[in-house]
Design a protein that fits this description.
Layout (H helix, E strand, L loop, with lengths): L1 H34 L37 H19 L6 H8 L3 H13 L1 H14 L2 H11 L1 H6 L6 H12 L4 H10 L4 H36 L5 H7 L2 H14 L10 H7 L7 H9 L2 H11 L2 H18 L4 H13 L4 H16 L1 H24 L15 H25 L8 H24 L6 H16 L6 E2 L3 E2 L38 H4 L2 H5 L1 H13 L14 H11 L2 H6 L2 H11 L3 H5 L2 H9 L5 H11 L5 H5 L2
Antiparallel strand pairs: 1-2
Helix pairs in contact: 1-25, 1-28, 1-30, 2-6, 2-9, 2-10, 2-12, 4-8, 4-21, 5-6, 5-9, 5-21, 6-9, 6-12, 9-10, 9-21, 10-11, 10-17, 10-18, 10-20, 14-21, 15-21, 16-17, 16-20, 16-21, 17-20, 18-19, 18-20, 19-20, 19-22, 30-31
């Protein structure tokens, strides 16, 4: 009996090693598939809908696969950036048409500046509101409402008769820029921490691309409309151009409603099911507004995104008035600034994620600091190109090409700073992610109002000199990065806990209060986190099953109470069904289940045929199972090949 028990124990050890090796191979295969965007584990949400992308334990996507629009992650991503793109396009659609609008409505330079400030300043309050909306009822519905409601003032632009009406319409259209907060909050709850910087930056960058596209496209739209519908009538042509942004708003607003608030469903559904804690507006407001890091990022974002808005309003007019270019060419060159969003904001997110993985939060802060400082340097260089020339000399100086190059490099660092900022925002306060996003986003628009008023609103201010002054302000403001601090991770210049018990989160959320994206998955087997489903041992404790199976089989030859022996066939018949539980099959593929059963479901009768194989294992532990099987067969230690095949 002692020999029998030792052989069973040794066989159990080998079976466990084989299963562990198989499990490691399966995990490596899953890791490979997940890196290529495949949900190979078949993880599903709490109602059984399988995700298209691999996800983490919170069902947030671990990859960004822009070639698909599958629910829920990539559908949300594409709808988020497209919604923001639509609002950016409509807000700045009047800018490249100003050479036609100004004489038609009698708009002065100061009134044009006020209209520009109204277009970016009106959304400051509504960005704060959108943050609260995102935390309570979801960013998706906030985005849809923003797009659909602001369709009306876009149509109203077709009927304005004076400067006042123009300013009012631009202000009302600008409210739609609150969609940026919805865009960033929506993407933040869909993607995991290691890639949220890239996802947020790409969505924001592609949305900001609307500024470049509108500068490039609207002059051509104007010419096409004038030639087709209003020959020789410039006034009617520029008015009809606003049908395009209006249709874009309306169509994108309806499409947004097809998305999903969170990976596992919409907010109201999840709250009703008990999977999500109901958000409290009083908590998110107190927590969000009392975080010092959020306010520092608000100022920093004002000097990146705010600067972008200001330059988007000024660039086409600058090339038209200073370099003597045509409206069409001036708009095309000005579009270079916005077109950098195609990739540059993503670069900021990538740099932040890369440095964050290596150095933690200090790496992300340094990424932002460097990007923003270089943004200011190239803004100064842009202004210095023509600042020493008389205005009438600039068109003949042939400096337009150099200015376009500097404008493009300047734009790259502007977008990288924006991407770096919103790579940090999701780490500020999970309990009030939407509110913090709203505060920082509002800072961007406020920054545009401040920079426009401070540097460009004066009727006698030269635009190139204004670029120099704004660049110096940007470099100075980047030093605020030194004040960003997280108690557990430190800051750019301070280590963890360097400030003792100080916490920039001045008001803490109530105990047990989760963020807007926190879902309780414990009661939903279908939505078990991927990390819990990735390994056999962690989920079903297979090692215990092996021990139990071995004890069960080794006792099969023991005497019953009446002195009889238990049939050897009974364990062989019952053990497989014992192991083929739904729980085991839920975490293993069918092939893996069969392999596990082969290693465990051995009856005492079958074990008797394994004597030679066990002996060879003890003598030659380095040999593979196939080699051991071959030697056992040649040694004649086992005559039943089917028994050996089970090992």
């Amino acid at each position: 009996r002692g020999t029998r028990e030792s052989k069973v124990a040794e066989g159990t050890r080998v079976a466990m090693a084989d299963v562990a090796a198989l499990e490691a191979e399966i995990d490596r295969l899953h890791a490979y598939c997940e890196r290529h965007g495949l949900n190979s584990r078949g993880v599903s949400d709490i109602v059984g809908r399988e995700f298209a992308l691999p996800v983490d334990a919170e069902h947030k996507a671990t990859v960004l696969q822009v070639t698909t629009a599958a629910q829920p992650h990539m559908r949300a991503f594409h709808l988020a950036w497209l919604g923001f793109f639509s609002t950016f396009f409509s807000t700045f659609a009047p800018a490249p048409l100003m050479p036609y609008i100004k004489p038609a409505l009698g708009i002065s330079k100061r009134e044009a500046a006020v209209a520009g400030m109204a277009s970016v300043g009106s959304t400051i309050f509504f960005r704060l509101v959108m943050g609260l909306v995102a935390d309570t009822i979801g960013a998706r519905r906030g985005m849809a409402a923003c797009l659909l409601v602001t369709t009306l003032p876009i149509l109203g632009m077709m009927y304005v008769q004076d400067a006042t009406g123009f300013i009012v319409c631009r202000g009302l259209i600008g409210i739609s820029l609150a969609s940026f907060v919805a865009c960033q909050a929506w993407v933040s709850v869909m993607f995991s921490k290691p890639i949220v910087g890239l996802a947020n930056a790409t969505a924001g960058g592609w949305g900001n691309l609307g500024g470049g596209i509108t500068n490039l496209a609207m002059p051509f739209v104007f010419l096409a409309v004038r030639d087709s519908f209003a020959p020789g009538d410039d006034d009617a042509a520029w008015r009809l151009c606003f049908w395009l942004p209006a249709l874009l708003h309306f169509g994108t607003g309806l499409a947004t409603l097809t998305g999903r608030d969170l990976p596992d469903g919409n907010v109201d559904e999840l709250e009703l099911s008990g999977a999500k804690q109901k958000s409290r507006s009083d908590v998110v407001l107190k927590v969000g507004f009392s975080n010092l890091n959020g306010w520092l990022l608000c100022v920093l974002y004002g000097m990146s995104f705010g600067v972008e808005l200001t330059v988007t309003n000024e660039a086409a007019t600058y090339f038209f008035e200073y370099h003597g270019l045509s409206v069409k060419l001036a708009g095309a060159l000005a579009s270079c600034f916005g077109l950098m969003n195609l990739f540059a904001r993503s670069l900021g997110g990538i740099a932040s994620d890369w440095l964050g993985k290596r150095f933690g939060m200090p790496g992300r802060i340094w990424s932002l600091w460097i990007s923003q400082a270089l943004e200011g340097v190239f803004c100064c260089l842009l202004g210095l190109t023509t600042s020493g020339m008389a205005l009438e000399e600039i068109p003949a100086s042939n400096t337009a090409g150099r200015c376009v190059l500097l404008l493009s490099v300047f734009s790259i660092f502007v977008q990288m700073a924006e991407g770096g900022t919103y790579a940090i925002v999701p780490q500020v306060s999970r309990s009030a992610l939407g509110v913090v996003s709203g505060i920082v986003g509002a800072g961007g628009n406020l920054g545009s109002v401040v920079t426009t008023a401070a540097f460009f609103a004066s009727s006698d201010a030269r635009t190139d000199d204004s670029f120099i002054k704004m660049g110096l302000a940007i470099v100075a403001s980047s030093c605020l990065c030194a004040l960003l601090y997280w108690p557990d991770e430190g800051g750019a210049l301070l280590g963890p806990r360097a400030l003792g018990r100080f916490n920039p989160q001045l008001v803490l959320p109530p105990e047990g209060y989760g963020g807007a994206d926190v879902i309780d998955l414990s009661g939903f087997a279908k939505g078990a986190p991927a990390t819990a489903r990735s390994t056999v041992l962690s989920t079903v404790k297979l090692s215990e099953s092996v021990s139990t199976a071995s004890e069960y089989e080794s006792s099969a030859d023991a005497e019953n109470g009446d002195g009889s022996k238990e049939s050897a066939a009974a364990p062989a018949a019952t053990q497989p069904s014992k192991l083929c539980s739904a729980e085991l099959r839920s975490v293993l593929s069918s092939d893996a289940v069969e392999q596990a059963l082969k290693g465990l479901a051995l009856s005492p009768a079958e074990l008797r045929h394994e004597d030679a194989l066990d002996a060879l294992r003890l003598e030659s532990p380095g040999l593979s199972t196939d080699e051991l099987r071959r030697r056992a067969m040649s040694a004649g230690g086992a005559t039943d090949r089917s028994a050996l095949e089970l090992v």
